[in-house]
Amino acid sequence: MPGWIQFVRQSLSHPQQVGAICASSRSMGWTMTDAIGIGDAKNIVELGPGDGAFTEVILERMSPDAHLMAVEINPEFSARLRGRFPQIVVKNGCVSELSKMLEEEQMGAPEVVVSALPWSVFQEELQDKLLSAVVAAMAVGGRFSTIAYVSGLFLPPARKFRRKLSQHFETVECSPIQWKNLPPAITYRCRKGE
Questions:
Q1: Which one, 20, 22, 29, 74, has least CB within 10 Å?
Q2: Considering the entire predicted model, what is its pTM?
Q3: How far apart (Å, rounded) are the C-alpha atoms in residues 160 and 153?
Q4: Each residue of 104-122: pLDDT tens digit?
Q5: CATH number for the domain including 116?
């Protein structure tokens, strides 16, 4: 089955897990991985990789001796990722278990975390739980990037989430709008404190 058909099917079947109706564009992948030091990182984690749209770009931009772990809660996406990218570690499970997953794979604390999680569909309690787990697992000074759709940026839940990022990270910056993505989106680029 073509990847785009599987993506649409999964997004309709599991809207709380997928959060998007179509896969992100390649240009969005470049925006997500800009200015976060991905080429210098030894340990990289991707959260909610879905069909691997960002995974491809991460693999192109990361150092040949770096390690990439993808954490995907949807078992069908996980199986597809393992088939497409046998060179990476794919963990099927919840981001709240990130530290445990890293320990199981004997991976060091990630210097870079790229997230396509659908934060806007999560309850605030779950947002806090997942962000806390990510920050706890990251290296000091580590970088975190996550996608946000322009259409919802000024709605109260999106504004609350932006404030939440500022509570969990030392710095939070916003990329220019990536108009080539459907729907158009931005990237929040965050840095964990010392």
A1: 22
A2: 0.87
A3: 10
A4: 999 999 999 999 999 988 9
A5: 3.40.50.150
